[in-house]
Design brief:
It is a single chain. By secondary structure, this protein is an alpha/beta fold. It has a single domain, classed as Rossmann fold (3-Layer(aba) Sandwich). The protein has ten helices and four strands. Strands 1-2-3-4 form a four-stranded parallel sheet, with helices on both faces. Helix 5 runs antiparallel to helix 6.
Length: 270
Amino acid sequence: MNDRPKYNICNYTAKYAGLFPASTIVVVRLTGHQLWLSVIKQRSALAPLYQILQQAGVNWDRPLESGGLLLHAFSNGGCWTFADWAEVLQGERPKLSDGHYLPPTAIIFDSCPGTDGIRVTLRALLNDVRNHFARAFIRSIFSVAYILRWVLFVVFLRRRKPIPGTISQARAILAHEKVLPWTTLHTPRRFLYPRIDEICPPEAVESYASELRALGMTNVKLGKFDDGTHVAVMESDPDRYWSIIKEAWNEALALSEASQRHSLPVRSKL
């Protein structure tokens, strides 16, 4: 799940295909125009993902028959998409109770999550826009829309919870132990990020990891890359980058095997 350019994503899908040749790789991209859609429309666009994963072997109803899931989110756009999908999925399937077999599951956060703010969001929007007139137009329109949205939710609707569609809301959703039906406090969660990042500052990533640990999540690890850049830390040290991901997946496999040994019988809802 990402907002990376298509040609860069191929570098990751090719590597994943080599690591897991029997697995299905699904790419969900967040484009600039989607940021202007309502939360309802954004989430409805993710509805087909449920069936796509089911066809790929992910069976939410029957965990014992299901394949695993390694979720890789890039930048704030990836976190937004992940959070929206988690909300859609929770509406489709209830959380499994403790004692069930848990298919292997791991979550990778690449250069995310950051924090809210008009400057940070504009940097992300304009990251790949080179035309000066286009940059000025986007900056003007987005600034007005951002302020109007804030006024609507905070002043008129008196909302104190995170505003829908913001990174604060995504951070809150992704901080749930069972953000997906199979995740637990022990699910491997890895944060890969650069030492310097103007879009998702390292301090924001590190503080979020600390929040998860404070909530009891025991398998949260950080991987800071001194020479990396935003959503490009892999390019600075590919061996280390992929070794962290493989280590996380191996831990997910071990946790899954342990849950199978101690699981209770799973009754089908069908």
